[in-house]
Amino acid sequence: MANPQTLTDFSRGRRLAIIAILGGLWTIGPFSIDLYLPALPTLGGDLGASQQQVAVTVTAFLVGLAFGQVQAGALSDVYGRRWPLVGGLLLFTLATLACALAPSIEVLIAARFLQGLGGAAGMAISNAAVTDYVRGREAARLLSRLAIIGGVAPIIAPLAGGQLLRVTSWRGLFVVLTAIALALFLSVLIGLPESLPRERRSSAGLGTLLRSLLTMTRDPRFMGFALVSALSFAGFFAYLAGSSFVYQDVYGVSPAAFSVLFAANAVGMLGASELNHRLLARFSPAQLLGAALAVNAVAGMVVLAVLLVGGLGVWELAAPLFVLVATIGLVIPNSTALALSLHPDSAGKASAYFGTLRMGLGALATPLVGLGGGMDGVSMGLVIAGAGVLALALFAVGAWLDRGRETTCELRPGTCADMTVC
Fold first, then answer.
1. Which domains does the chain show, CATH number per domain?
2. pLDDT for 50-106, tens place per residue?
């Protein structure tokens, strides 16, 4: 069957394989960042770089993800999902190997940017492929499943990174990541079918891309969901960039213990993704998104309070951070499904634009963590709390402006159509 219209057109085994591959693409970000987080303090010493320069290696990857998603998404709308994805994963694999061989912090930063450009294809196109098959509430349910698969990476990656550092250096971590990248490349090349039929592909050209982006920018609901998600990710990436230094340098936690704390947070996010999948049988994606944003904002303010007071134990910080990270397991699938369901005919561009805004704000947030000199944690807390409160406020304003309106997304036969997006 060349271009099935729904996942049910496949056999059960093939359907599970496709879901596993799409979920595997969600691990690109976590593995590319979380695997080497325990090595950040020692990486700087090895390359003679400051903490701020080391933090830029995270920022460079996020900037690459942000810029790469627009191009990858646009190409996938024109040429189909499969071959732009294959090309992006090839670049990702080669750039990851270059990271392992980097002789200086400058080369490492450049390689991380290229790594992000390539990895962007996996993140943008996997979401677009979901909307090729299902939309609305069913898209949120499927994205929750992908988030569960992708959520395994933040659990495994820091634990593996901490243990691998016992026998290798940060370069060895990037060698392991190269092997993971190669496995993803081969799985897509061999096992992922094309999901976008030729008759549903858009025309090529910069003008077409710009018109689509302009249409989405003028859509207040799309931009609302995108900015809410982006602000939540800004706080999340502030945690990613700063937690290693805060836990190890301020609280004296060992790299191995930090890996356990980080993995525990990832377990929380994984559990929240599974909970989200179940709750979608009773609540709309918008209701769950609003609840998650409220909890995220409160947790962020508690994190800031703990860091401002200072002198408290590590568990006083670890508990609200656990709650904060867990809420991302609800924010990701619901905000993504709500936004992409508004523009199903330009799913690739919509996914790319959505991801660019999200990763772009995340990239802007990571340097803010290093403001004020050393990583004392206060700047990290300010970014986390500020982003969470702004996201909740924006969602509340959008819900108030759209009160009373119910939008039923265009769904394929066999999917659920009772979704409120306001």
1. 9-401 (1.20.1250.20)
2. 877 887 898 889 888 878 887 887 788 888 888 999 999 999 999 999 999 999 999
